[in-house]
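Data deposition worksheet. Section B asks for the primary sequence of the deposited chain exactly as it was used as input, without tags or linkers unless they were present during the calculation. Section C holds the resulting structure in C-alpha cell form. Section D is free text for depositor observations; keep each observation to a single sentence. Incomplete worksheets are returned to the depositor.
Section A, Depositor: J.P.
Section B:
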Amino acid sequence: MIKPTLTLKDSIHLRVPKIENLKRHLILKYPGMKSSKLNEGITDMGGVYFLFDKEGSLLYIGQSQDIERRLKSHLRVEAYSTTYYVGWIIESQSYLRLALESLYIGLYKPVLNHSFRRLPENNIMLKKLVKKQEVVE
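Section C:
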C-alpha cells in the first residue's frame, strides 16, 4: 500500500482511494466501433477520472466539471483510441479535483499525462492544499 505524506501549513486532509479498487465502466456502448456512443451510466458529475486500456493499464488521469462531456472530447483524439474503461471519483469542489488529479498523476505517472510527470513534489498548489493523504483500500 502506498502511503505518501506531505506536511504543510494551512492545508487539508484527503482520503485517497486506490485506483485498483475503483469500479470500471466500459466507455463505449459498442467497443471497437468508431461511431459507438458513450456507454450509459457514465456520470455527468464533476470529479477525477481514470482511463484504462483493454488490459486494465492506466493511460490517463484527468478532472472535469462534467466527466461525460470530457470523455466525449477525449474520444475524438487519436491518442485515446486504445481507451476502453473509465473509473472516477466524484468531487464537486474544483480545487479538490485539481489536488486529487495532481496527487494521482504523481503517484501513478500514467503514460498520457506528459505535462504532470514531476508531480506531486513540485506542485505548489498541491503542497498548499494537501497536508496528508491516505491511500485507502
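Section D:
The radius of gyration is 15 Å.
Strands lie at 12-17, 25-26, 47-52, 58-64, 85-90, 130-136.
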